[in-house]
UniProtKB/TrEMBL annotation, chains A, E:
Organism superkingdom: Bacteria
Organism annotation: Sagittula stellata (strain ATCC 700073 / DSM 11524 / E-37)
Subcellular location: Cell membrane
Protein name (record): ABC sugar transporter, inner membrane subunit
Keyword Cell membrane: yes
UniProt keywords, alphabetically: Cell membrane, Membrane, Sugar transport, Transmembrane, Transmembrane helix, Transport
Membrane-related topology note: Multi-pass membrane protein
UniProt GO MF annotations: transmembrane transporter activity
GO CC, any one term: plasma membrane
Listed transmembrane segments: 44-64, 124-147, 154-171, 191-219, 250-270, 307-326, 332-351
From TrEMBL, chains B, D:
Protein origin, superkingdom: Bacteria
Gene3D superfamilies for this protein: P-loop containing nucleotide triphosphate hydrolases
ABC transporter domain: residues covered: 14-258
Record's protein name: ABC transporter related protein
Coiled coil stretches, renumbered: none
InterPro entries on file: AAA+_ATPase, ABC_carbohydrate_import_ATPase, ABC_transporter-like_ATP-bd, P-loop_NTPase
Length: 356, 273, 320, 273, 356
């Protein structure tokens, strides 16, 4: 029976004559379908549109006060820390996880960089490497607990948050290392604070680093196998494993990358605030998650584009600066930012729906 | 059920003995045996819930049995995950398909063994060769007669039921080295597409790779199978030769309407070569 | 927009949920209105939210403000941002909390938090008399990150009470047997109650309670009340807000150190107005490196050797 | 394709005209028509991805068509969700089953129409009558021949593929009033269980409730269908009478190997009563 | 063909003789399978075991200081606010949502109760009703945005958190209403603070309310149709809708219930701290989520039991008090709680695995 089988049931006799052309339908033409297509294939486009819209609106309301190279690059600077952390957060959220320890890891890494240099007199470059290693290690612990012990990421990173933050306070003895000292003795720590002035625009290396980081991650996620695995694991871990992806390795690598990026954020933080301050970054987790979600990445994993998080962070930055310049006072600003966060995502949802 | 006496020299590719799996109160596998021999198509048939999917999952490491032993080519193995099995060249089409819904067809097809661009971009920047993967995926689907897939970049969750199944079957067939397990590969497929899968199974066998085929479609089973393993209530109930037994007797044994033939009349090993 | 016409000023506080800063803002707003200054106020989201303060300073620069009133969350880390503002020709006045170093700001209008703590510490010790040697003290602090104000008040209290400080830059390292323990309250009633309960479970015979501020004191009082010990325990606190002073009157708190945020803020606005008009900077108080807006102990049970004002007087000068 | 001229008085239960549905670049329904008449079993056949599932989803409100109109018993309707359809007594067995994986069999069967305890506990405390629901569920599954379900409190995600499908079919059959749509109801079912579903379909028709049956199993289709709607490339390609056409011609039309018969020879309405 | 069909394919001829008995396997007997069965069918049992274990461990370490009616009921009191809020949070998380606004709703409701009584002179019972209505309304807005506008719950409640909190500060002008005034003029506001002393045990009405609330919710979730729908919606919203559940109504009802429960928490808060203080409850969201997750409810919805959240809250309470009594100082306690949160969930996971 194995040779030249009697082609099954008799009703299948006509199958050999079945057409073998691929189904073709006329493509709908015109601008609208084109835009829809673009929105579909580039998920980060939607937050980008919201971002541009909000810049335009504030530009109209505030004129040159807002719509100046100075103010616009200021937003980049103000957003850089949250932005870098949001990049780390995006990776974790894409795997259907969440990282509440980002802020703590960032601060501890910067404290390590500072204290190693000043308390133990280790050369700054070595201290910086130690700080980066420290962040990566914290990330590894997170990843190991999530992947191997199979604990929920929320709990793991919540616990790590407390542990790392307390370690940070205990280790640093709550002492700030002052900017003047750093400038004098280890200016490398402030590297990311270096300013490039172009006319009114003032870019810092930190802001540039953030932009490059996002481009790099976008490349990694879209163009390499690792990136596809990150999406697959976040989409459905079990299916990913069944279909041959080493889900645990991917998870651990993602949390390590997150830790490393947070450590870079810690370095950038020294550049931004000048000093090494153990009390910074307390809101980094909630702010980074906000940026990621506004950027259109699903908290359930597997869906969204990392560039969206950059736009998400910038949207919040634009709102904050814009509202402040409009003269809203602090509580009103918080209230309005609350409204606008919901509004931004509602617009995002609406654009998606209209383009479906 | 010793089979050493009969076939003598043929070593089974897979040999499972006394496999047991409980889930809480539920008994999914109840001291089941299993044998797959080189180059054959072994069909597994049985009622819904008989434990067919469970036993093949136990074989490929997707489920850890509570008891029993499994040998691959004579060597006892204990797979901790399906990855271990895949590394040995074992491919499986799961009944629940195991696709990542949000990813594209090509991404799913190449999950875990992506192709990189040739040259610098591939080795240093590790860039994927998306074009090559898409072409390959498109080709495989067309081979299966799935010509209605309009865009190869569609997410799998937007495919029709049959198209999804096609992706899973194409993936397994393309990459298997040692053997393939197909758990109801044609359940959602159309007439034409099912026919292509049967042809594919015969092609694979022709290459010398054995296949385990789980199916409820008796005409299909009797058309391609070399031996038919009848599973009932978590156990191997009988193994019969589809050329010697009628479909209706096989169905009767499977549903409990008829006693299985005595062991010596069963087809526990393929006919001596 | 009307900018360029009116002088504009910024008020940046640690948070704007703490009544202390709310009052500070009220004082600044009232004075600004009176002098025709346009005031924008900013605040961190939580205590210690340093980043938001940096952003606030940048925003004020972008906005072309003439002066900034600042209560810094992180007194040394904020310095580069302050320097940037001063470079842009803005007058920066530190309110309540001096920067580190103190001359990083153009001027400082502050209370001496250490002194505020010392006053209640001395008062408590004097009140107990000889029993002070056997006191069992609960220390209800602000937060685990040990912000400077909290440390200053805590250490001031201990100094006043006559306890060896260890490192004066942090709390919790003292070895005196009389301290039952430190716990954190986040400066509110809920935290105060929980921290008090925890320490009471550790030693139910606590008889002196230092609290970081009056809400925490009110929470601690509830915890004591629930076990019927509210009358045998001495609670001391710092701030001098109206509800706090009222609590002193009601016997909830034994004594509190009163500060004057309204005064700080209105003085600050005046200074900015003067700077905008004639370019003069304010001068510090004689003999100090800052302009001291003062602190007074409010209690109806004065003790010898510690200067205090009555509750009636405290009520007159209270701020919220 | 006007049918007014022929059947005259028979009003279709469902009438769809010119239905279109695009998903981005993908055309799932391309100006398709659809008719279901009272008391009949209408089979829908077609290649994988032809658009069968899409069109029945459009009919029951699970998908909102871009164009076209749908009438139920002569009245134009626009369902915004499948709930609207269910309220009219329309039940559907989805190809992807639409079960809540973590819930038990009984919970799934009664989702949205739970039974409450009689008396005080039910009316005031709104307590569920779990026992009655479990008994009912067990009974329905046994009727379908799914006797391997060991515990009626098993979560649906722990059931075998066929058992799951049985739950979905049993649910639809138990509650339908107006008509039932079954999208490949026997795909995962065993020989015995499939047979029971075919019997069930005939029982339902005997009660006067019409059924839309999507299936790739030609013998099944030709056994139970009164009319066969052949779907191809998103369109209704032809409607044939299974008693007048051979299976092999139907398959040929479906796969594009043969032209459909001219409209006047098609079976656009049931034979005049 | 419709009458007496020719029984299909010929190979099916034997089907009529197929056995029709239901599959039976011997049940495994003995204690271990019994325990396993119980753990399987009662998901809240695992956190309960962890809770009992931790009480035992601290009891051994600390003796009667901890293992006394006083200390144990003190934990109940300390946990009551987080516990009540965790009940609300559980409902939302069961629907695969998250409610970050719980703390803000709680505080605003208590402020409304207080200010209506004292600022406007409205009788306390009416004010309390207004406060409860206010919480329910906030919940309704959350639910409406999630269900109808289809925004992610994280974003909706993040926005509401900011909005409600800012409203709270703006409306209350940060003024505390003192315990003494409430006691004198509207003691009903402090109702939940009433203490029942039984020997050393000191129970408050608030703690009892919390326990009753959990029992009530457990009943609702397990014994009513609404409860099953909550699980179904959380499990897979789309499937639930397709199978005939009015998912949007369920979602809105859940968020409203959450708002109402939070308002009750606000009332209980007045009982606990005596006064009405607009700055309370800032950590209620993170603490309630922690309790829920430690209690074994999945953040992905549809799995877990509400009683677990009660045990989760108590576990954290036991650790906190136990560690303080052991003499750990504040920073170390903070660190150790991080470790123990991870540890508790790891034990939980291990028990589940061992019982699988
Ligand atoms: N994770 C699980 N938990 C509990 N019971 C399970 C689980 N997986 C499978 N079962 C049970 O084990 C039995 C065998 O299931 P299995 O999927 O192997 O059947 P099958 O023979 O493949 O059936 P089908 O032909 O319907 O696919 C069924 O009764 C099923 O309910
Ligand atoms: N959500 C969606 N997004 C994009 N394309 C879709 C979506 N749903 C369906 N399609 C496409 O529409 C076409 C028709 O799909 P449909 O599921 O209706 O096919 P079908 O006839 O039911 O096939 P099968 O027999 O395999 O179930 C397919 O090409 C499919 O890829
Ligand atoms: Mg199966
Ligand atoms: Mg289909």
């Amino acid at each position: 029976m194995s040779e030249t089988a009697s082609k099954g049931q008799d009703y299948e006799s006509s199958l050999s004559r079945a057409t073998s052309s691929v189904a073709e339908f006329e493509r709908r033409k015109g601008l609208v379908p084109k835009i829809r297509g673009a929105l579909h294939s580039t998920p980060a486009l939607v937050p980008l549109i919201v971002l541009v819209l909000s810049i335009v609106v504030f530009g109209i309301l505030l004129g040159s006060k807002f719509f100046s190279p100075f103010a616009l690059t200021l937003i980049l600077q103000q957003v850089q820390i949250v932005g870098i952390v949001a990049a780390a957060q995006s990776l974790v959220i894409l795997t259907a996880g969440i990282d509440l320890s980002v802020g703590a890891i960032m601060v501890l890494s910067s404290v390590v960089m500072g204290q190693f240099t000043f308390r133990y007199g280790i050369p700054a470059p070595v201290s910086i490497l130690c700080g980066l290693a420290c962040g990566t290690l914290m990330g590894f612990i997170n990843g190991w607990l999530v992947a191997k012990v199979k604990l929920p990421p929320f709990i793991v990173t919540l616990g790590m948050w407390q542990i790392v933050l307390a370690t940070n306070f205990l280790y640093s003895a709550n002492e700030t290392i002052r900017a003047q000292e750093i400038e004098a003795q280890a200016p490398l720590l402030q590297f990311f604070g270096t300013v490039i002035a172009l006319g009114g625009a003032r870019l810092t290396y930190g802001a540039i680093f953030m932009l490059l980081l996002f481009l790099f991650l976008a490349y990694m996620l879209n163009q390499t196998a690792w990136g596809r695995h990150v999406y697959a694991v976040g989409d459905d871990k079990e299916s990913a494993e069944l279909s041959g992806i080493e889900a645990n390795k991917v998870l651990i690598s993602v949390y390590m990358a997150s830790g490393l990026i947070c450590a870079f954020a810690g370095w950038a933080l020294v550049g931004r605030i000048g000093s090494v301050s153990p009390t910074s970054g307390q809101l980094a987790n909630i702010e980074s998650i906000t940026a990621v979600v506004i950027g259109g990445i699903s908290l359930f994993g597997g869906r969204g584009a990392v560039m969206g998080s950059l736009f998400g962070a910038l949207i919040v930055g634009v709102f904050t600066l814009g509202l402040r310049l409009l003269g809203a006072d602090a509580q009103w600003t918080y209230l309005l930012i609350g409204v606008l966060i919901i509004g931004a995502v509602a617009v995002d949802q609406w654009i998606r729906k209209a383009s479906a | 059920m010793d089979q050493e006496g009969i076939g003598m020299t043929i070593q089974p590719v897979v040999q499972g003995r006394n496999i047991v799996k409980h889930y809480g109160h539920v008994t999914a596998i109840d001291h089941a045996d299993f044998d797959l021999f080189p180059g054959e198509v072994l069909a597994v048939i049985g009622d819904n819930g008989a434990g067919k999917s469970s036993i093949v999952k136990a074989i490929c490491g997707a489920v850890q049995p509570d008891e029993g032993e499994i040998k691959i080519e004579g060597k006892p193995v204990r797979f901790h995950s399906p990855l271990d099995a895949r590394d040995m060249g074992i491919e499986i089409v799961y009944q629940q398909l195991a696709l990542s819904p949000a990813l594209s067809i090509a991404d799913n097809m190449f999950a875990g063994r992506e192709l990189r661009k040739p040259g610098f971009m591939g080795t240093v920047f590790r860039q994927l060769d998306k074009k090559r993967m898409e072409e390959f995926a498109r080709q495989k689907l067309t081979d299966l007669g799935l010509m209605t897939v309009q865009s190869i970049n569609q997410a799998v969750e937007t495919l029709s039921g049959g198209q999804r199944q096609g992706v899973a079957v194409a993936r397994a067939a393309a990459f298997a080295k040692k053997f393939i397990i197909m758990d109801e590969p044609t359940a959602a497929l159309g007439v034409k597409e099912s026919r292509r899968v049967l042809e594919l199974i015969q092609d694979v066998r022709a290459k010398g790779i054995p296949i385990i085929l789980i199916s409820h479609n008796m005409p299909h089973v009797f058309e391609v199978a070399d031996r038919v393993h009848i599973h009932r209530l978590g156990k191997r109930h009988a193994v019969v030769d589809p050329k010697k037994i009628s479909m209706s007797d096989a169905v009767a044994i499977m549903t409990g309407a008829m006693e299985p033939p005595p062991v010596e009349e069963q087809q526990l090993t393929p006919k001596a070569a | 927009e009307s900018h360029g016409m009116a002088t504009s000023a910024c008020l940046i506080t640690k948070t704007d949920t703490n009544p202390f800063f709310v009052k500070m803002k009220e004082g600044a707003t009232a004075k600004a209105e009176e002098l025709g200054i346009e005031l924008k106020s900013f605040a961190g989201k939580v205590d210690g939210d340093h980043e938001t303060q940096v952003q606030a300073i940048e925003t004020c620069i972008a906005d072309g403000a003439k002066g900034i009133l600042l209560t810094a969350s992180d007194t040394s880390s904020i310095v580069p941002a302050v320097q940037q503002a001063r470079d842009a020709g803005i007058l920066v006045i530190a309110l309540d909390t001096p920067l580190n170093p103190i001359d990083s700001a153009d001027a400082t209008f502050a209370t001496d938090n250490f002194l505020a703590g010392e006053l209640i510490g001395k008062w408590a010790a004097a009140k107990l008399g000889d029993e002070a040697a056997n006191a069992k003290i609960a220390m209800l602090d602000l937060g685990v990150s040990q912000p400077t104000v909290g440390v200053l008040r805590d250490q001031g209290f201990l100094q006043g009470f006559g306890i060896d400080l260890g490192d004066p830059n942090k709390w919790g390292d003292e070895e005196d047997e009389r301290i039952v323990g430190n716990d954190v309250t986040a400066g509110n009633e809920e935290g105060g109650r929980k921290a008090m309960e925890n320490l009471l479970a550790k030693d139910p015979m606590i008889n002196v309670v230092y609290t970081i501020n009056e809400p925490a004191a009110a929470g601690a009082y509830e915890a004591l009340k629930s076990i019927g010990r509210e009358n045998d325990v001495l609670i001391v606190s710092v701030d001098g807000g109206c509800p706090g002073v009222q609590n002193v009157a009601d016997g909830v708190i034994g004594a509190t150190s009163q500060q004057y945020p309204l005064l700080m803020a209105s003085k600050g606005i005046e200074a900015i107005a003067a700077w905008a008009k004639d370019g003069v900077k304010p001068q510090p108080t004689e003999g100090k490196d800052f302009f001291d807006t003062g602190v007074s102990l409010v209690t109806d049970e004065p003790v010898d050797g510690v200067e205090s004002i009555s509750v009636a007087e405290g009520t007159e000068r209270c701020w919220g």
